[in-house]
Design a protein that fits this description.
Elements: H1 4-25, H2 27-30, H3 36-57, H4 60-65, H5 72-103, H6 108-116, H7 118-135, H8 139-162, H9 168-188, H10 203-233, H11 236-249, H12 251-270, H13 275-312, H14 318-335, H15 338-345, H16 349-370, H17 375-398, H18 405-429, H19 435-454, H20 458-469
Helix pairs in contact: 1-8, 1-12, 3-5, 3-6, 3-7, 3-10, 3-11, 5-6, 5-7, 7-9, 8-9, 10-11, 10-16, 11-14, 12-13, 12-15, 13-14, 13-18, 13-19, 13-20, 14-17, 15-17, 16-17, 18-19
Length: 470
């Protein structure tokens, strides 16, 4: 039991790191066969798909996990409900495709969006199976499935890009990745759907899902608003550059933040009647996430001006500044993001909906004001907003359990300080070192920075791990 949390979170994180890296490591190849406009078209199409994918589960899988007793009829009812939802989302997405293409005056969006419409349907088919695996603690098996899916997507995108498929290589990667994950979850989960009859009332799950749908839609709007504004005002080429920077910025969320949140949710749900324990779990998650995320983000940000042109070609050099300016804000959001998980686990979904709505409205306003001034202004505003909104964000957590803002800041302090120094040192070196020298320096600096962040607080890390293990 002592290592349960680390095994679960570690296995999921390893698979997500592999998937995230598989999508980033191919960029030096793919970026030489696709131009920023094609990346911009893909980002514009994925804006609709991201919303549809969130609706395909609607949080009902999480609602099932919260149940203390397993009712086969209840799980079967949820499966058929989500299957119908997924099918409906696929049809609606295909109907939206021509309107979306006309809105942005980009004819390729019609066919891209039509092909990607299958993704929410595939997600809905696997949602209950994944929930069952998570409830049973089969995180390592989930990790293997996701790793295999990532490898399949990696092979697909490289093969098609080299063959001249252009943006369709990115489309095929997403479809193969999702299809393999769906097949794997259905094959290895113990859940087997029965005939679509004898449905049980799902009022509690629908209420839970309703609040989570609102949160998911608003949260996605928060992340996709810059994409829409940039595409509409600055054009597909600028959106392609922003999308490239986002692919690197999404690494901490996909590879580390997501898996930790999954494991933390289960842990908080079990401790939901002990407010202090939930607060300790949250603070512990901030400490571990800060150690995991701050150093690599700082290393890449400090050497981005050299590494982006080297790895992706000179065409993508402007993406380096976007990444660097937005890095602090994105890292801070991921490290502190388990407030939403906490409110969900404690069944305070209405408060979670209010929190994300407020945050999205404010963030949308500042981003909209920044877009006319260029991509760098948008990236700078993203970081500035995350820093300024943090006290308010933590205040929402304090409404449900005794989270100490000072304790959270202390949990992040050592890693943030060490990482800031590493960032400054690499940024200084990039003024005189060659790109290849910076690559070697960055590779050497990362383990050193991690060591400097871990060693001074080993005792605190052990306590945090103990808190998460229960």
């Amino acid at each position: 039991m002592a290592k349960t949390f680390l095994v679960n979170a570690g296995s999921l994180s390893a698979s997500r790191i592999f998937i995230a890296l598989s999508q980033v490591l191919v960029l030096p190849v793919v970026a030489r066969f696709l131009d920023p406009v094609e990346f911009g078209d893909m980002a514009q199409a994925m804006t609709v798909i991201i919303f549809a994918q969130l609706l395909s589960d609607a949080g009902m899988g999480r609602s099932l996990i919260r149940q203390t007793h397993y009712d086969p009829a209840e799980w079967n009812s949820v499966f058929w409900l989500l299957t119908c939802v997924g099918l409906g989302l696929m049809i609606v997405t295909m109907a939206i495709a021509p309107l979306w293409a006309n809105l942005f005056d980009r004819p390729p969006l019609l066919w891209l969006l039509s092909a990607l419409a299958v993704l929410p349907f595939l997600n809905s088919l696997s949602a209950v199976a994944v929930a069952q695996m998570e409830k049973d603690g089969q995180f390592p098996r989930l990790a293997v499935i996701r790793a295999v899916a990532g490898l399949a997507g990696l092979v697909t995108v490289i093969a098609l890009a080299v063959a001249g498929a252009g943006v369709w290589s990115l489309v095929a990667q997403q479809i193969v990745l999702t299809a393999v994950q769906t097949i794997g979850a259905i094959a290895y989960s113990h859940f087997r759907p029965g005939p679509p009859r004898n449905f049980t009332p799902l009022g509690a799950h629908i209420r839970f899902a309703g609040d989570n749908v609102g949160v998911s839609l608003i949260f996605s709007a928060q992340r996709q608003v810059p994409v829409l504004f940039i595409g509409a005002i600055l054009g597909a080429g600028s959106l392609g550059l922003f999308s490239m920077a986002q692919r690197f910025l999404n690494l901490p969320r996909t590879a580390v933040g997501g898996p930790v949140a999954q494991a933390v949710y289960v842990r908080m749900a079990k401790a939901q009647h002990d407010g202090q324990k939930v607060a300790d779990i949250y603070t512990a998650s901030c400490l571990l996430l800060s150690v995991a995320i701050f150093p690599p983000i700082a290393i890449l940000a400090g050497s981005a001006s050299s590494l982006f042109p080297l790895l992706l070609s000179e065409t993508w050099a402007p993406a380096a500044a976007i990444f660097t300016l937005a890095a602090v804000g994105v890292a801070l959001e991921v490290i502190t993001s388990c407030v939403g998980v906490m409110l969900q686990a404690l069944d305070r979904t209405r408060l979670r909906l209010w929190m994300i709505t407020e945050r999205t409205i404010l963030r949308t306003v500042v981003v909209a004001l920044a877009v006319p001034f260029g991509l760098e202004a948008v990236a700078l505003v993203i970081s500035g907003f995350s820093i300024c909104y943090l006290p308010r964000y933590l205040a929402f957590a304090q409404r449900v359990c005794p989270v100490s803002q000072l304790a959270v800041l202390r949990a992040m302090g050592v890693s943030a300080g060490v990482s800031a120094m590493a960032w400054g040192a690499l940024a200084t070196c990039s003024l005189t070192f060659t790109a290849w020298q910076m690559l070697g320096l960055a590779c050497a600096a990362l383990p050193l920075t991690w060591a400097a962040a871990i060693l001074p607080q080993i005792a605190s890390i052990r306590r945090a791990t103990s808190s998460l293990n229960g």
